[in-house]
């Protein structure tokens, strides 16, 4: 007796099931705003998933919108926060904030990678951790928020998520972004930060360490975790400036 053929599900059904299989409540909580399910599903759909399931749409159109809203918001924030800075300072400041590495850093802070819908190939090659995918998906999510809620709400989400980077933009470098870019240039994996705190709650001192490919390269301290991480990244950046082979040799 011939074996019954399994019914192959449609691309749309596979899409719906993949989206429903992930609890997105934590992401929405970190974003601080609700996003309509179909719009969020589209924002999280990488082209590798869409292509793998036929003619599904992907998030690139929303990414296009999000990029524009992000650029305008960051430019306006820099204009307001740094009134004495000329355009020649503001342009590179904005570029560092909205760079692939700056966006990927924000994506990691909200664990966005866990929510992206990827094709099997990207999944197998660590797509959830790739800077390019994280950065593009961040812009797509911002595009979705803009399409549903308009500019004011999206601006508020951006300024909250990027506040640390905007505040640190007046320094020569946002050291975490600078370090991540340098490590990527050398072919290493993204830096990994760990932090501890000592002292009473109202006057804690934080100590952060940054490791690159499993080796500690910087230690920093500060009155909050973000400052400690920036200081550790600064130390690691200058170490790699003097010893670029430390990353390159470990990749061979």
Automatic annotation (TrEMBL):
Belongs to the ribonuclease III family. It is found in: Cytoplasm. Residues 24-150 form the RNase III domain. Keywords: Cytoplasm, Endonuclease, Hydrolase, Magnesium, Metal-binding, mRNA processing, Nuclease, RNA-binding, rRNA processing, rRNA-binding, tRNA processing. This is Ribonuclease 3. Mg(2+) binds at residues 63, 136, 139. Its EC number is 3.1.26.3. The lineage of its organism: Bacteria, Bacillati, Actinomycetota, Actinomycetes, Mycobacteriales. Its cofactor is Mg(2+). InterPro entries: dsRBD_dom (IPR014720), RNase_III (IPR011907), RNase_III_dom (IPR000999), RNase_III_sf (IPR036389). It comes from Corynebacterium genitalium ATCC 33030. GO terms for biological process: mRNA processing; regulation of gene expression; rRNA processing; tRNA processing.
